[in-house]
Design brief:
5-stranded mixed β-sheet; ABC transporter transmembrane region fold; 18 helices; transport; about 575 residues; 5-stranded parallel β-sheet; Rossmann fold; 2 domains; transmembrane helix; transmembrane; alpha/beta; elongated
């Protein structure tokens, strides 16, 4: 990945967080500065401590130690050093607790960002127009909500950690410059050369692996959905072994990408530890050569050893986090793109339905397709039972989707009691509709949960709609509304699933009941029984029915024949 992409992704991730998050981020950066000073002080205090411990008489030769000794009236150098030791222990205990608190705050911030990214992508997806949503790849949406959101939060975590480690490293580096600028510059040149080679060599490979990861995981999620969603077909075609091979190939490829990333990510640590040890040995040799007396240079050697002990892990962590940011960069781009999509601004105006629905001069066409409707007009009076019949592709479901506000006409207007249907009142209109599709989706939960479908479960209302849908007796023979439906409703028969769908549609007492080929997959006897129940339930409601069998709609007040052009009234 190029440097400009790296900086671009940092800009993108910062643009995704809220103003409050930026304040928290600023607080974390300030906490990082404090951590930097604590870490630097923790290293720099070692040299004077060792110096005074090996030669207590030097206490009186240094201004600071001499002032402290006389100001607090120490009786002996031993008493001074014991107090110094206790304070140093207390400082390191404080340092440990501060590190823990800082790490907790950082991890909490990152975890909340994962929630924020995931939740934001989910909300953005749900708020989209149905027409736009229907073009989306569901596997990509799932991957963005689960995997890419997590990766984007780790990108942010690595960014904060890099800032922290750079701050610590620079302060320690400044300290070493004060002690011996010549030796520190030599150290800098050697480390800088290694870091440059690592970034150039490993960074490019990690960037490619990050792009490969994104592609591989997309294929992996797609394969899972296709196989698990078509389980019967897989079994009937006896192609389990082929599916095993495809899954194995994708899984191994996914694993290889992770292995390569983890391996390349560990290289900087191994290289720098080796180089650092060699540099430390060389530094000791240089100091001995320059000063001649080993005891005189012991504090300096100790200082450099401790500084390198802290600087080298910082450099390693910086490179690790840099590689992680490159690897996760594609995730940031995908989350950013997902959150930039336009969404309709829908209001909360109320709309009443007491008289009629009027479609006036409606025109509609799917993108890059011919018009399904042109100058189409229709009036539906409240309480009417209307059937929409015609061949497949004639526009029956599209017309229903326009009426219930899922699709928007390209031209023309829809009026409810003379009030134009628009973005301000569309929510109120949709709440008046109970929709029963051909394929009832039941999630793995109880019957009660599936009927309420995210709403609060009202036992009295559940009982009422279950009786209306003629499924109450079945539930009483089992575990009531706690009866489990299984994944996709596989624990229920086709008729039972349909009745749960009817109960769900009735739960909020809609004014309009829509059957979109709701019984076409059932046998004639079951379909007849369910339609009898629906006509009874909908006697005081407006009923819109799409069906292929004329027997299904024979009791409707009107039958509207849908043709290929759908012009006129």
């Amino acid at each position: 990945m190029k440097q400009n992409n790296f900086l671009k992704n940092i800009s993108l991730i910062l643009s995704l967080i809220t103003r409050r998050d930026r304040v928290i981020l600023l607080g974390l950066l300030l906490a990082t500065f404090l951590l930097t000073f604590i870490e630097t002080f923790g290293v720099s205090i070692i040299m004077p401590f060792i110096t005074l411990a090996t030669n207590p008489d030097l206490i009186f030769n240094h201004k600071v130690s001499s002032f402290v000794y006389h100001y607090f009236h120490f009786k002996s150098t031993n008493q001074f050093m014991i107090t110094f030791s206790i304070l140093l222990i207390c400082f390191y205990i404080f340092r440990a607790f501060y590190n823990i608190a800082y790490t907790y705050s950082l991890n909490r911030f990152v975890a909340k960002k994962y929630h924020y990214f995931s939740y934001s992508v989910f909300c953005k997806t749900i708020r989209q127009d149905y027409e736009k949503f229907s073009k989306k790849n569901l596997d990509v949406i799932r991957k963005n909500i689960v995997q890419e959101s997590s990766n984007a939060s780790h990108f942010l975590s690595s960014f904060l950690n890099i800032f922290s480690e750079i701050s610590i490293m620079l302060l320690l580096y400044s300290l070493l410059l004060i002690i011996s600028w010549k030796m520190t510059l030599v150290l800098t040149c050697l480390l800088a050369l290694n870091v440059f080679l690592i970034i150039k060599g490993i960074g490019r490979v990690v960037g490619k692996q990050g792009e490969e990861r994104s592609k591989t995981e997309g294929s992996f999620f797609k394969m899972l959905s296709q196989t698990l969603g078509n389980f019967k077909i897989v079994k009937l075609r006896a192609r389990e072994e082929e599916n095993f091979k495809v899954f194995e190939q994708l899984s191994l490829k996914r694993s290889r990408v992770q292995v390569l990333f983890q391996t390349f990510n560990s290289l900087p640590r191994n290289i720098l530890e080796t180089v650092g040890f060699c540099i430390l040995v060389a530094c000791v040799g240089y100091i001995l050569f320059a000063y001649g007396n080993a005891s005189a240079v012991l504090p300096i050697v100790s200082m450099y050893a401790l500084a390198l002990y802290r600087i080298l892990p910082s450099v390693t962590k910086i490179l690790d986090h840099y590689n992680t940011m490159i690897f996760m960069g594609k995730s940031v781009e995908q989350i950013y793109e997902a959150l930039q999509e336009d969404e309709p601004q829908e209001g909360n105006e109320k709309i009443d339905f007491q008289k009629n629905i009027l479609l006036r001069d409606i025109a509609f066409a799917y993108p890059d397709k011919k018009e399904v409707f042109s100058d189409f007009n229709l009036e539906i009076k409240k309480g009417e039972k209307i059937a929409f019949v015609g061949k497949s592709g004639a526009g029956k479901s599209t017309l229903i989707d326009l009426i219930i506000g899922i699709l928007k006409p390209k031209r023309g207007k829809i009026y409810i009691d003379g009030i134009e249907l628009n973005d301000n009142n569309i929510k109120s209109w949709r709440q008046k509709i109970g929709y029963i599709p051909q394929n009832i989706y039941l999630f793995d939960g109880s019957v009660g949960e599936n009927i309420a479908f995210g709403s609060k479960m009202d036992k009295a209302r559940l009982t009422e709609v279950a009786k209306m849908a003629k499924i109450y007796d079945f539930l009483q023979e089992n575990e009531g509304f706690d009866t489990q439906v299984g994944d996709g409703g596989n624990s229920l028969s086709g008729g039972q699933r349909q009745r749960v769908g009817i109960a769900r549609a009735l739960y909020h007492n809609p004014d309009i009941l829509v059957l979109d080929e709701a019984t076409s997959a059932l046998d004639v006897q079951t379909e007849s029984a369910i339609m009898d129940e629906i006509y009874q339930i909908a006697k005081d409601k407006t009923l819109l029915v799409i069906a292929h069998r004329l027997s299904t709609v024979e009791r409707c007040d009107r039958k509207i024949e849908m043709g290929t052009k759908n012009k006129g009234s």
